[in-house]
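In response to a reviewer's request, we include the raw inputs and outputs for one of the modeled complexes. The two entities were modeled together in a single run.
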Amino acid sequence: MQKQSVFTSRWLPFALIAPQLAVVLVFFYWPAAQAVLQSFLLQDAFGLSTTFVWFENYKELLSEPGYFASIVRTFVFAFAIAISSLSLALLFAVMADKPLRGVGIYRTLLIWPYAVAPPVAGVLWVFMLNPSLGVLARGLRELGVDWNPLLDGNQAAALVILASAWKQISYNFLFFLAGLQSIPKSVHEAAAIDGARPMRRFWTVTFPLLTPTIFFLIVVNIVYAFFDTFGVIDTMTRGGPAKATETLVYKVYTDGLLGGNLGSSAAQSVILMGIVIVLTAIQFRFVERKVTY
Amino acid sequence: MANVTLRNVRKTYPGGVDAIKGINFEVADGQFCVLVGPSGCGKSTLLRMVAGLETITSGEIDIGGRVVNQIEPADRDIAMVFQNYALYPHMSVYNNMAYGLRNRGMAKPEIDKRVREAAQILEIVPMLDRKPRQLSGGQRQRVAMGRAIVRQPKVFLFDEPLSNLDAKLRIAMRVEIRKLQRRLKTTSIYVTHDQLEAMTLADILVVMNGGIVEQIGNPLDIYQKPATTFVASFIGAPPMNLTPLNAAEFASRVGNGGTLPGAPSGAILGVRPEDLTITSEATPAGGVGYDLTVEAIERVGAETFVYGAHAHQAETAAVSANPGELPPGEIIVRVPGQAAPAIGQRIKATAPLDKLHLFAADGRSRIDL
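The model returned the following structure tokens for the whole complex.
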């Protein structure tokens, strides 16, 4: 049996990969190149003339205090989302891994939120936490919290983190559950006979055996928090109040599409692209190295 | 050091399936007890109940004079070797062995002393810093043993520990386990489906089938006097030849003119393949003779197994089919060496009276001749 296909025509292989190549070129390389090019250009206010300005856009961007604030904010969001959704997902997965009555129902329900589109999730949380008509907001006020995310930046940030983390729990749950189920039952039993109580068993056996999954999910969650939270932010806060929830991705959108500053927006995109490349490289290292212990 | 006593132990799963249907036996201090039986007979479940990994529906399990029914596995003072070894993949060999001691708050120097001692006994000292995945199957097996012995528990439990090894290594490890157990004198319960392993390891053999004990005793006694047809065909390889006899046949074949006390109708006659001799002489008085047509021959070197169909095939079709039992009408004869009749040849195989086993028609009890 031949494993490699042999093409008699020289052009057939090229023809066969052409559609895929075309898609990648048109929808990825071309816009990426456009962004890089755009980041070196400066347009006048009316879009009538364009000047090539080299790194002027970058210089201006990096000297802008608002940009640094946005970088810090994005990282804070990313870690808050990753840590909260990972720890909750792990807790749920450990619970759902136990032999329970109706465990299939729990598992299914825990996976469902992943099917909800981010803007829908955003709207859902906006309703529940709306200061004047939200169910949860009312509860919070009764607890003595002066709840108003429309005015309070920290509360708005918490809201975005909450909704984004909630959305990601299902995904993490799925991976954790698979990770837990790949640990042989007899290893837990051996640890039980070896005198390890449930908590100690978790931290000395289960958790270390889950580290490959955890590292993988940390990267995935950070990438998610960096980019995929756009829909949540756009429906919930639109970056406000007073830019308190304006992450890097949202700033690209506001500066470029709403502010019309295409040069700066493009420069921001290029920087973001760099971050994605680094994160993806790290991610591949962990995905390819399946066993890390 | 401890006795293990099981008193009317039962296990019923929530669905109503009875896995263990009332088991009684005692393993004396320092004895090596082997539970043997076909897959699904409940032997592993029973072992896991002793370990505390399965609940006990009713009855009592007593380790060293203490009923352990409600005691956690960790506090039963047992160590278990699992079929897949269940080593902690992220820990070094050293830490795999030290883990159980650390959990019990033992002082570091004492842990170190015990781990090194065990490693020496098991000849795994050079591997102490390796991870389980860097070890071969046999080495992993040793580490699993090491993890059990460092604890110096009252009882060792083995759950088919050799079934993942190749045939050669299995024999070598079998001998080592026996030597180790003799040296440590720790009470042990060992589960296997391999009757050869069971015969060679056991001080006391418990033959199980369908959640009940078929027979308990010294392995040779069980081999020589199987209590039921199940035991007769399960212990010994190849299995014992079993043929049901009607009253007339009983008189003519077994009696051979002589008389036997209380000859029951429909009894089952058993003869081990090694007790049959191919001969042209007359059947010895009181013995049995089969007229066979040779159907197949297996040569294994030191001995040869001759499979023959005997003439009364039609009458014997109703034999109950226990696992491992021969198809009705087939008789195996063991011949020492390699000389054997040709396929299709008609032969006569006989056995003397003192080599015969007789069972009641239902196969559940032995009739002493």
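As requested, we also summarize the result in words. Residues 313-321 of chain B have pLDDT under 50 and may be disordered. The longest helix of chain B spans residues 167-184.
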